[in-house]
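Weekly structure sync, notes
Attendees: PL (lead), two postdocs, one rotation student
Agenda item 3: pending single-chain targets
PL asked that the sequence for the first pending target be pasted directly into the notes so everyone works from the same version. It is reproduced below exactly as submitted, 412 residues in total.
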Amino acid sequence: MKLLKHLNWQIFTSPDFVSDPYPELARVREATPAFWQQDRLFLTRYDDIARALKDSRTFGRAMSPLSRDELPISEVTLQDPRRAAFDAFNTNHMLDSEPPKHTRLRSLVGLAFTPRRVEGLRGRIGEIVRGVAAGLEGCGTFDLVQGYAEPLPVTIIAELLGVPEEERWQLRPWSAAIVRLYEVSPPDEVTQAAEQAVLDFSALLRGLLARRRSVPEDDLITALSQVQAEGERLSESELIDTCILLLNAGHEASVNGLSAGVLNLCRTGQWDEVARAARQNAPEQYFRVLIEELLRFDTPLPLFERFVLQDAVVAGVPVQSGQKVALLYASGNRDPRKFEAPDELRLTRDPNPHLTFGLGLHYCLGAPLARLELGISLRALALAFPRLEVQDFAYGGGFVIRGLERLTVRVG
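Predicted structure, written out during the meeting:
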């Protein structure tokens, strides 16, 4: 099979592509299921991406079975002193770990971050979003990203962890700085900012953990410090870095998912229908189905990478141990081989086996919280502002963590 180099690496930093990657992704997906760029094999089609996600023996987030010298990857950055804290952070949480370490971490964190704890946040989430919406009444126009989408996840995760209110203002800037380092070829200033954010966030959590060990409270940091299974406990570094991961992943997915969802509902002329459903007190299932479709239609995390852990063939292409595969979730979620009329936003699409939260071993642990936040906040927004009109919007940052920087709306 001929591998076509249709998608140039530099396009991932192009503002036009970041703003609307789907036409170009569709062109590449129909031309080839896979292509090489920058020593990575990019997968474009749903079934190939799903197979890679489910095959954790062949494709892993961590490359622990391999030494640095064995990796045929020119841009490997491990042991780079400029990002020592960032790289240490990535080795201590479950997202970039593989069994048996991943199994141990996920089981321990799961004992504290329980469905019951998440469901217990329902009332508080509703209280927060109604308060934020009430504060926007009478504005006429406002930035939905900063005015509505951003305050909720930071507040919820901060309360979940137990971060005091007077220290929460730092969390959003830290999260934004850290996730920018996952972008393609980040410049030195991004590396420096991410490294400092990891150090500062770790220092705050380390102090908070020390206080919770002396005086336990009903929060996640206390729970994580107390959980044990079969004699195993989280180390201090594992606990701290797990908390940083929860903030980064939960915050970015919720903010970007909600703001892009509202934008797409307005642009496709379907906001009125959602507002009508909210006014008529539509069942929770309506909003659950709607959220899944919004996350499929415009995924806030369009690309994930995996290391090849053993020689294999994927999408008909041989890959060697130590190489990388890049999984284009945004392309897979629009694959017509899997979804009927994939470029249509269908509010009642069900079932909806999208890739946004991953599949297999690394399926997102925070997915239930993200879904809960998105459903409640979308309903509350529709009730408060049944008529919304998009005035202006702009995407910021890059493609890997893709989100709106600004979404100016006018309310009727």
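Discussion points:
- The beta strands are 34-37, 40-43, 59-60, 141-143, 303-308, 312-314, 317-319, 324-328, 388-396, 403-411.
- The radius of gyration is 21 Å.
Action: rotation student to compare against the earlier draft before next sync.
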